[in-house]
């Protein structure tokens, strides 16, 4: 038999082992290097995504809050008083919504004033008090809303409902000397029933935590000082209760880089980055414990108790000293004489 290329190719195809045209998917996955799961990085990504989402939601609220407030105020008046407030204030332009930066610790405020106008007869004489057409009343009503405090739709609706009840109390019920009395509570209950499915719950006080932009905390007693602006300087200001240093906790300040020559920063940081002294650590821990043990005691009494414990601790460490515990208490109390009640 003569050599034939076609015969050789057929024989090779028949007797040679089969070659895999494409790699096995499972084997490829097992061979490929896998990225290690890092819980810390995952947590950081989740936190960053949450911050971005909150920022976008806040931007959307800022854009829509004026229209939302006007629409809900009209809905309140129509549902609760059958349009009575709009009718009474029509001659003065209706209820005005005023967004302001001057309210820092409360979210809203209702303002109302009634103006009495007496008409005169054609001859110039004043109409009598018994005349029904001689006297007219003008109602000036407005609601102030805090730009710095109202930061979401739920809070806006609840604040508006609360202040609306005040106006209804003034203008419809005629109660001006008892702002949170029986009549106000009746209006509040009516609002809560009508809009409860939207999370509206009107109480005698605004129940919410204000999101302050800046927070400082005493390194000793732990008292917090919250502000909307950077109005506290730790280099100049001290805690009003124990006169110890303040440290900013929100936002946490960035650490300053040290000078290249290794010299100190000149004391401009207010001592915030220094080590905590034994007295400061003791004060911070004991203030927490004493407040839990005596929840209704004033700050001055709590400081006296903590001072007594500090004096007792000092005397126990120095048994050989001639200083008595009573004298130590007096000494520490003297150091804390400038307490701010």
UniProtKB/TrEMBL annotation:
> From start to end residue, where is composition biased (Gly residues)?
262-275
Give the UniProt entry's GO cellular component terms.
nucleus
Q: Which InterPro entries match?
A: HMG_box_dom_sf, SprT-like_domain, SprT_Zn_ribbon
**Bias regions of kind Basic and acidic residues — which residues?**
33-43, 51-61, 332-341
Q: Which residues form the SprT-like domain?
A: 74-249
Transmembrane regions: none
Question: Which Pfam families does the entry mention?
Answer: SprT-like, Zn_ribbon_SprT
Q: Which Gene3D superfamilies match?
A: High mobility group box domain
Q: Where is the composition biased (Polar residues)?
A: 313-331
Region: Disordered, residue numbers: 1-61, 249-276, 311-341
UniProt-listed SMART domains: SprT (SM00731)
For this entry, the protein name equals SprT-like domain-containing protein
Q: Which organism is it from?
A: Staphylotrichum longicolle
Q: What is the lineage of its organism?
A: Eukaryota, Fungi, Dikarya, Ascomycota, Pezizomycotina
């Amino acid at each position: 038999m003569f050599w034939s290329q076609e015969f050789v190719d057929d024989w090779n195809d028949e007797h040679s082992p089969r070659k895999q045209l494409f790699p096995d998917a499972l084997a490829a996955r097992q061979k490929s290097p896998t990225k290690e799961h890092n819980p810390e990085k995952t947590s950081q990504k989740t936190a960053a995504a949450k911050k971005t989402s909150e920022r976008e939601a806040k931007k959307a609220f800022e854009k829509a809050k004026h229209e939302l407030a006007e629409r809900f105020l009209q809905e309140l008046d129509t549902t609760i008083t059958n349009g009575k407030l709009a009718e009474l204030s029509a001659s003065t332009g209706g209820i005005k919504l005023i967004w302001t930066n001057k309210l820092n610790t409360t979210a809203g405020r209702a303002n109302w004033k009634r103006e009495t106008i007496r008409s005169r007869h054609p001859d110039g004489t004043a109409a009598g008090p018994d005349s029904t057409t001689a006297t007219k009343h003008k109602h000036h009503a407005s609601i102030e809303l805090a730009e710095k405090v109202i930061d979401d739709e739920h809070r806006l609706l609840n604040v508006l409902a609360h202040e609306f009840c005040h106006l209804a109390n003034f203008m419809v019920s005629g109660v001006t000397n008892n702002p949170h009395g029986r009549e106000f509570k009746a209006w509040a209950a009516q609002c809560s029933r009508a809009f409860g499915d939207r999370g509206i719950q009107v109480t005698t006080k605004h129940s919410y935590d204000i999101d302050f932009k800046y927070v400082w905390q005493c390194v000793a007693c732990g008292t917090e000082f919250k502000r909307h602006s950077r109005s506290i300087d730790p280099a100049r200001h001290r805690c009003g209760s124990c006169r110890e240093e303040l440290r900013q906790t929100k936002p946490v300040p960035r650490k300053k880089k040290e000078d290249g020559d290794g010299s100190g920063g000149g004391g401009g940081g207010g001592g915030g980055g220094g080590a905590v002294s034994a007295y400061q650590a003791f004060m911070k821990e004991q203030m927490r414990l004493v407040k839990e043990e005596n929840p209704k005691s004033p700050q001055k009494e709590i400081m006296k108790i903590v001072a007594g414990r500090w004096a007792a601790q000092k005397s126990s460490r120095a048994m050989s000293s001639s200083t008595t515990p009573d004298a130590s208490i007096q000494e520490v109390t003297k150091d804390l004489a400038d307490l701010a009640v």
